[in-house]
Amino acid sequence: MSETKLTASTRTEFGKGAARRIRRAHQIPAVVYGHGEEPLHITLPGHETMLALKHANALLAIDLDGSTQLAIAKDVQRDPVKNVIEHVDLLAVRKGEKISVEVPVHVVGEAAGGALAMVESQTLHVEAEATHLPEGFEVSVEGLEAGASVTAGEVSLPSGVTLLTDPETAVVVLSAPQVDEGAEEGEAEAESGAAEPAEAAEEAGEEA
């Protein structure tokens, strides 16, 4: 995964009022922690950060006063109404270091017989090298029938990625397609209605 460079500045003001002023200036308050160091309070450019964090487990190169710190987002707080980023917790990482992350799963393929793929686990917990974190895992349901399932242990992982989720955990379960009972009743009534005139015609013919 390529890293995204973000130029940060040191944050000296704290509290809700300061955070609002930072966001009005199109910046995002953030904190970097990890490796036993004191938390580092910074501000990040709003638009660039928002774009970078659209990718799961994005690797960020935080440029602060001429020095660069690699980090990933561990917690992103968003406004529930406006859906804008209010604060970001960043975990400092190093090349070669292995860390645990949650990686989203994506269902691909077409199940057999119209079976529906129900995602039971939205993410898998894995361990991977900090600068090569996967953005997502594809879970194929191609040709699977209703009643089948795919467990965490059956998901194909890239080289160097170790599964931490219980291998027996169901990730995707295939269920039978839902039948519209109203539509079935309508079809049955239509068939019944069509049969009645035919029977009446036969009876009329016999009487004649």
From TrEMBL:
**Keywords per UniProt:** Ribonucleoprotein, Ribosomal protein, RNA-binding, rRNA-binding
Q: Where is the signal peptide?
A: none
Q: Mention one GO molecular function.
A: 5S rRNA binding
Enumerate the spans annotated as Large ribosomal subunit protein bL25 L25 domain.
6-90
Domain Large ribosomal subunit protein bL25 beta: where? 98-178
Keyword Ribonucleoprotein assigned to the entry: answer is yes
Q: How does it assemble?
A: Part of the 50S ribosomal subunit; part of the 5S rRNA/L5/L18/L25 subcomplex. Contacts the 5S rRNA. Binds to the 5S rRNA independently of L5 and L18.
Sum up the protein's function in the record's words.
This is one of the proteins that binds to the 5S RNA in the ribosome where it forms part of the central protuberance.
Per its record, how is this protein called by name?
A: Large ribosomal subunit protein bL25
Species of origin: Cellulomonas carbonis T26
